[in-house]
UniProtKB/TrEMBL annotation:
It holds the Pfam family LysR_substrate. The keyword 4Fe-4S does not apply. This is DNA-binding transcriptional LysR family regulator. Residues 4-60 form the HTH lysR-type domain. It comes from Paracoccus sulfuroxidans. GO terms for molecular function: DNA binding; DNA-binding transcription factor activity. The keyword Heme does not apply.
Length: 285
């Protein structure tokens, strides 16, 4: 029993559907001589003539039998490929995202994807951005969201400008004339670097509270224990963005970037996640 390559069957069916060797070649990206060689090979494997020898594309009785089964085989092949692609897209997605962005965006993102693609499952890791970028390079994530200095997001799939702002409690006292009391994420965080760089030794500051979670920062800032910096778009309503001229130097602008795994970042599931986050990010921006 001989196995018949599906590419030969697909070419045969395409010739019948388009009524021509040249048209079939145009659709399949092959030359007419290549199409003729494929038909010669198919006939040799089957041991029958597929077309009547009258200069037309009329099928022999055997050719009609082959055409009927070829369509069934190709349909089964295509159904299998489609089902496998759907199964692959339904795997667990490994997402890395900064803690503050997770709190702000993930509830809406997961709710949206839960309606559109309930077969998806997620493994979410919250870290500061430089740890997420390192993890992506070690193939630990399918996709990450990272905050980077302006102009430093090379290789990103999508990039948005992200202004930073000083943040204090709703009833914080004026800050002129005294060292800034800084509440921040652990060392390596872009917010922390931006605050220290903006203040410099002249203004004076003291790191009075450090926490890896947004909830921890919120607890300290909301009570007036200190101030912090956040992306302007994700400042909680229970805190306030300190306006320019509020006794603090301006913070440098940053960028938020969406990175995909270079090895398998183009799977349907990852692209669906990237598209959903992009739409949500722009809607809530």
């Amino acid at each position: 029993m001989r196995n018949i390559p599906t590419d030969l069957l697909r070419t045969f069916v395409t010739i019948i559907e388009l009524n021509g060797f040249r048209r079939a070649g145009d659709k399949l990206g092959r030359t007419q001589p290549a199409i003729s060689l494929q038909m010669k090979r198919l006939q040799e494997l089957l041991g029958v003539s597929l077309f009547l020898r009258n200069g037309s594309l009329d099928l022999t009785e055997q050719g009609a039998i082959v055409a009927r089964h070829a369509r069934q085989i190709l349909a089964m092949n295509d159904d299998m490929q489609h089902e496998l692609a759907q199964h692959k897209s339904a795997g667990t997605l490994k997402l890395g995202i900064p803690n503050d962005y997770a709190d702000h965006f993930l509830p809406r993102l997961i709710a949206q994807l839960g309606q559109e693609a309930p077969q998806l499952t997620f493994n979410v890791v919250c870290q500061v951005s430089h740890q997420l970028i390192s993890g992506l390079q070690r193939d630990e994530f399918d996709m990450i969201i990272a905050l980077t200095p302006k102009g430093a997001s090379a290789g990103a799939h999508m990039v948005w400008p992200e202004p930073l702002t000083w943040v204090g409690s709703l009833d914080a006292p004026p800050l002129q004339g005294r060292p800034a009391r800084i509440v921040c994420y652990p060392e390596g965080c872009l917010y922390r670097k931006s605050m220290i760089a903006a203040l410099g030794p002249e203004r004076g500051y003291e790191i009075v509270y450090e926490s890896p979670s947004l909830a921890g920062l919120h607890a300290a800032v909301s009570t007036g224990f200190g101030i912090t910096a956040l992306s302007r778009r994700i400042v909680p309503k229970s805190l306030r963005a300190i306006p320019e001229g509020g006794g603090l130097p301006p913070l440098p602008d940053a960028e938020v970037a969406l990175y995909l795994n270079s090895r398998h970042g183009r799977s349907p599931a990852v692209l669906r996640l990237a598209k959903a986050f992009s739409s949500l990010f722009e809607d809530l921006g």
